[in-house]
């Protein structure tokens, strides 16, 4: 990496789905990407550096913070990692609650804590993009805890936009609707959900990644604390 030229983005959940699409977009645009995931990839791109991290583990997050402190700069953080097991009031238990909130909420905060010192000291404006979900705004059946965790991410976005403004860091979130990923394709929910979308299709992960790029690539110099709904008209 040519440290004086390359912009650096930290992307959680880079090994699959929308996180992988974001990482590809950034790499293709000439960024250096630090991928953070519980899984690794077979991508041998010279500008991708991977860290195997369980975002629910305070120990792993402490180790990540030490590694990120060695980076020459961090210009953007994209928190795309998340899990979404189905839950209802009848099925909720403490273990599932901790699993979902530890990854989707604690893991998001831990990632940002690990990256903040270097992000705040990098010259120029920094960007954070959190992955919320339309389920954090308009809930879906069977997603009781997931919806609650994404509502928490929306609240974090707004609070952090205020808190980090003095560091010249803009904080926004994307709230996708139905997206074609390996995870959503494992059951019938995707085909059922598409029926309620005016465009009559789910988004491709690369379409979501394109909006993330709009938020981090330097053209955004003023928008912060906003939740960008990307639903094909499904949230009107």
Characterize the structure shown:
The protein has 236 residues and is of the alpha/beta class. The protein has a single domain, classed as NAD(P)-binding Rossmann-like Domain (Rossmann fold), CATH 3.40.50. Helices cover 38% and strands 16% of the residues. The protein has six helices and seven strands. A seven-stranded parallel β-sheet has the order 3-2-1-4-5-6-7, with helices on both faces. Strand 5, helix 4 and strand 6 form a beta-alpha-beta unit.
How far the N terminus sits from the C terminus, by CA atoms, comes to 44 Å
- Strand order of the biggest β-sheet: 3-2-1-4-5-6-7
* CATH level-four homologous superfamily name: NAD(P)-binding Rossmann-like Domain
Helix content: 25-40%
Characteristic key phrases:
alpha/beta, 6 helices, 16% strand
Short description:
The protein has 236 residues and is an alpha/beta fold.
Helix-strand layout with pairing:
Elements: E1 8-12, H1 17-28, E2 32-37, E3 48-52, H2 58-68, E4 76-79, H3 94-121, E5 126-131, H4 144-163, E6 169-176, H5 189-194, H6 205-216, E7 227-230
Parallel strand pairs: 1-2, 1-4, 2-3, 4-5, 5-6, 6-7
Helix pairs in contact: 1-6, 2-3, 3-4
């Amino acid at each position: 990496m040519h440290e004086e030229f390359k912009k650096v983005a930290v992307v959680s959940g880079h090994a699959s789905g929308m996180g992988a699409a974001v990482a590809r977009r950034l790499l293709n645009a000439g960024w250096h990407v630090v991928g953070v995931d519980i899984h690794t990839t077979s991508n041998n791109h010279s500008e991708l550096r991977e860290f195997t991290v369980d975002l629910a583990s305070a120990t792993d997050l402490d180790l990540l913070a030490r590694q990120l402190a060695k980076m020459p700069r961090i210009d953007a953080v994209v928190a795309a990692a998340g899990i979404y097991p189905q839950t209802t009031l009848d099925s909720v238990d403490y273990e599932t609650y901790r699993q979902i909130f530890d990854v989707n909420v604690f893991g998001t905060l831990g990632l940002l804590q690990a990256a903040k010192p270097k992000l705040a000291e990098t010259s120029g404006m920094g960007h954070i993009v959190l992955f919320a979900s339309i389920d954090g705004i308009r809930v879906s059946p069977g997603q009781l805890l997931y919806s609650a965790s994404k509502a928490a991410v929306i609240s974090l976005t707004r609070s952090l936009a205020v808190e980090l403004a003095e560091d010249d860091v803009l904080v926004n979130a994307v709230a996708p609707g139905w997206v074609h990923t390996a995870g959503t394709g494992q059951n019938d929910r995707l085909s059922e959900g598409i029926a309620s979308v005016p465009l009559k299709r789910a988004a491709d992960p690369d379409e979501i990644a394109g909006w993330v790029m709009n938020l981090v690539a330097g053209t955004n110099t003023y928008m912060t604390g906003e939740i960008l709904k990307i639903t094909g008209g499904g949230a009107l």
